[in-house]
Amino acid sequence: MELEFRNLSCGYGQRRVVDSISLRLKVGEVVGLLGANGCGKTTLIKTILGLLPVQGGEILLDGKNIKNWTSAQIARVIGYIPQMHTPPFPFEVLDVVLMGRTAHIKPFSSPSPQDVKIAERALDMLNISYLRDRVYTEISGGERQLVLIARALAQEPRILIMDEPTASLDFGNQIKVLSHVKQLAGMNIAVLMSCHFPEHAFIYSNRAVLLNEGKILHSGTPGETITAERLKTLYGIDVDIVTVKNRMNQELRVCIPSRNFTLQPMQSMERRNEYAFA
Ligand SMILES: Nc1ncnc2c1ncn2[C@@H]1O[C@H](COP(=O)(O)OP(=O)(O)OP(=O)(O)O)[C@@H](O)[C@H]1O
């Protein structure tokens, strides 16, 4: 399966946020989408999921325009993992994962034993079967993120879209979640993942797409795409990209800020007090 955007534009009402971008995403690939806050990553993701109307161009799945697809049709093919979320009700973990089956269950029907099996298999795949009967609101942030990945897997998608899957995770859980993401590509799933850390794209993606002011600045292998010059364009800071070796003698690239960003002087305490008591 292949997801393709052709001259895709999206935004809110009259406001254009993403302007005429073209991109192809193939099964087995992890594509890291990088860009500054507000550059349009979430807007693009919401448009792919049919949550925002397409302003221009096309979204194609295996060459077919999905313009008139229902959200259930899209959900049978595209799984979505949002940034960390807390549901309003204390569902058990298995029930959260079973929600991934919704698009496959007939209206007014309950999940079948087969659906339960698929949900349990998804938990097992991520080594979190021990969370099956726990209350979702009472597990850690990292565990919740893994449960959301299990929910997306239970959906049996061919394409998985992740909006900053490591946001608010600690260092260890970031690495665990991203390692699972990389594994998914080996299961014939295409992954599009927005991320804030170039190192994550270097280690865990096959391709990096740099989104700048609603346009693709560059797309290609992370090594040739993520350069100090382009990071300066994206984020407005000077960075050195350094190659280091880990203890297994594997080469990794890391980004080091090369000099301090010049900050505006802070307001003096007296000025702040003037405002506070005005
Ligand atoms: N509901 C909305 N209505 C109007 N404009 C919006 C809405 N949501 C977001 N925007 C604007 O669209 C632009 C892109 O926002 P978007 O959330 O896609 O950015 P992003 O790249 O995902 O940012 P971040 O990295 O901070 O999550 C921003 O200027 C934002 O203010």
From TrEMBL:
Superkingdom of this protein's organism: Bacteria
GO molecular function: ATP binding; ATP hydrolysis activity
Keyword Iron: no
Protein name as annotated: ABC transporter related
InterPro entries in the cross-refs: AAA+_ATPase, ABC_transporter-like_ATP-bd, ABC_transporter-like_CS, Metal_Ion_Import_ABC, P-loop_NTPase
Record keywords: ATP-binding, Nucleotide-binding, Transport
SUPFAM superfamilies with a match to the protein in the record: P-loop containing nucleoside triphosphate hydrolases
PANTHER family recorded: IRON COMPOUNDS ABC TRANSPORTER, ATP-BINDING PROTEIN, METAL TRANSPORT SYSTEM ATP-BINDING PROTEIN TM_0124-RELATED
Domain ABC transporter: from-to ranges: 3-238
UniProt cross-references to SMART domains, sorted A to Z: AAA (SM00382)
